[in-house]
UniProtKB/TrEMBL annotation:
GO terms for cellular component: cytoplasm. Together with the chaperonin GroEL, plays an essential role in assisting protein folding. The GroEL-GroES system forms a nano-cage that allows encapsulation of the non-native substrate proteins and provides a physical environment optimized to promote and accelerate protein folding. GroES binds to the apical surface of the GroEL ring, thereby capping the opening of the GroEL channel. It comes from Arcobacter venerupis. It is found in: Cytoplasm. This is Co-chaperonin GroES. Heptamer of 7 subunits arranged in a ring. Interacts with the chaperonin GroEL. The keyword Chaperone applies.
Amino acid sequence: MNFRPLGERVLVKRTEVENKTASGIYIPDNAKEKPHTAEVVAIGNKVEDIKVGDTIVFEQFRGTEFKLDGQEYLILNIENVIGVM
């Protein structure tokens, strides 16, 4: 992948959501809630406290979703990142 976010932005890939509950009930894709955690794939030149490979928690309904090389990614402003796990 050849993409670098600019400024105070991070490029992340959402963590996978389980298809089954703990009791074994299947959850269809359209009923899954999108996770609020993601792995950092790339960082902008003004990002200091986060590094590539970190798992972050971010605010719900934030960021810009897009596809690159067949993969889904999310670009977040650093102000929408709540913390690092």
